[in-house]
Write a structure and sequence with these properties.
Elements (H helix, E strand, L loop, with lengths): L1 E2 L7 H18 L7 E6 L6 H11 L6 E6 L10 H5 L9 E5 L14 E5 L5 H9 L6 E5 L6 E4 L8 E5 L6 E4 L6 E5 L4 E3 L8 E6 L5 H12 L5 E6 L33 E5 L5 H13 L5 E5 L8 E8 L2 E8 L4 H11 L5
Parallel strand pairs: 1-2, 2-3, 3-4, 4-5, 5-6, 6-8, 7-9, 8-10, 9-11, 10-12, 12-13, 13-14, 14-15, 15-17
Antiparallel strand pairs: 16-17
């Protein structure tokens, strides 16, 4: 159920109609309970006492999915944790999705498999308490949770397989000890990332909206640390050297592309590079993948940076794999030139 009250003229009427309708629905479920409760509200101020009343009806034995998504104006709403952690729904809820509110967990959830937190006021110790005691947890998604400095995933989470972390501006350390993590998506603003048993990682996505040597980092580290990697997605706004000077272009200096002999990738099947340009490190990484990824089926080189909409697609084949390159329709000639110059030998 949801309400979008952007129209100020009809806001009061729509809001009251919405409240009355939800009240009737919830009263009909007083005795039988619900399995899934999803509340989305992006309007102006809303009486949170009503929401708490609905939650008291919804969070009962047998509830499996709970989602509360509020607009930024509701960010001061305190989610009623006693309902969740001391109530009867504690051992049945499998999916918890909370957005734009304050959340202060004091325990774990025995059946929780999926946790999604966005624009939340939650401290690192509180998150650690929740996930460390939710032993069935399989997936964790964090977006724009700005109070978290350190994220720790304990070794007891043997079912934990997927981690996504974006726009957590104060987050400095990610330390995973869960043994079966295989899908990771993070932004590269995180200074220290320890994935744990990287032999398990099959899917990796990294991006950065500011200039950062993310492609160089991927080229230097991942071949040895993630030999079973199958899908790699990289989005880079630019490649710079440590002096923060502009990257060297292969079109300006075509000499001496570096190689890493002995590193093969027999498992990697799909590679996406977003923000592709003529930077030497990007061309080196791409050449390395083409030469050593023996199971590669698809390589996408995307020169679009987020916010650009006009592009055209060029498709051909590389060694039996589909080769797809996207480029902005104006002003991206150097990227396409480097594609033609260095990767032509792989076209069949």
């Amino acid at each position: 159920m949801g309400l979008n009250c952007w129209d100020p003229i009809s806001y009061k009427k729509n809001c009251q109609t919405f409240i009355d309708r939800v009240d009737r629905i919830m009263k009909n479920h007083l005795a039988i309970g619900v399995k899934r409760f999803k509340f989305q509200y992006y309007g102006s101020y809303f009486r949170t006492s009503k929401l708490n009343s609905w939650l008291r009806t919804a969070v009962t034995p047998g509830i499996e999915e709970l989602e509360i998504s509020l607009g930024y104006k509701q960010a001061k709403y305190n989610f009623p944790c006693p309902l969740l952690f001391a109530g009867s729904g504690r051992n049945s809820i499998r999916s918890l999705h909370l957005s734009a509110c304050a959340f202060h967990p004091v325990a774990g959830l025995g059946s929780l498999t999926r946790l999604y937190l966005s624009n939340m006021h939650i401290l690192g110790d509180e998150l650690r308490c929740l996930i460390s005691n939710s032993f069935a947890l399989e997936e964790l998604y964090l977006t724009n949770c700005r109070q978290i400095i350190c994220l720790e995933v304990p070794c007891q989470l043997r079912r934990f397989v997927k981690l996504e972390v974006f726009y957590c501006s104060k987050l400095k350390v990610i330390e995973n000890k869960a043994p079966n993590l295989c899908t990771v998506a993070i932004d590269s603003d995180v200074a220290c990332v320890s994935i744990g048993d990287s032999l398990q990682v099959k899917d990796l996505e990294m991006f950065c909206e500011v200039e950062f040597n993310i492609v160089y980092h991927a080229r230097a580290k991942f071949p040895a640390s993630m030999p079973n990697l199958e899908t790699l997605s990289i989005a880079s706004a630019g490649e710079v050297v440590q002096t923060r000077m502009k990257h060297d272009s292969v079109l300006e200096d075509p000499s001496g592309l570096r190689q890493m002999p002995g590193h093969r990738h027999d498992s990697i099947k799909k590679v996406d590079i977003t923000g592709f340009c003529s930077a030497k490190s990007m061309v080196e990484l791409t050449c390395h993948i083409l030469e050593n990824a023996t199971s590669l089926k698809c390589l996408t080189l995307d020169t679009i940076l987020y916010g650009y909409e006009q592009w055209r697609r060029v498709t051909t084949k590389l060694g039996g794999a589909n080769f797809s390159a996207q480029t902005v329709s104006l002003g991206r000639g150097s990227s396409m030139s480097s594609i033609g110059l260095y990767f032509v030998n792989f076209v069949v």
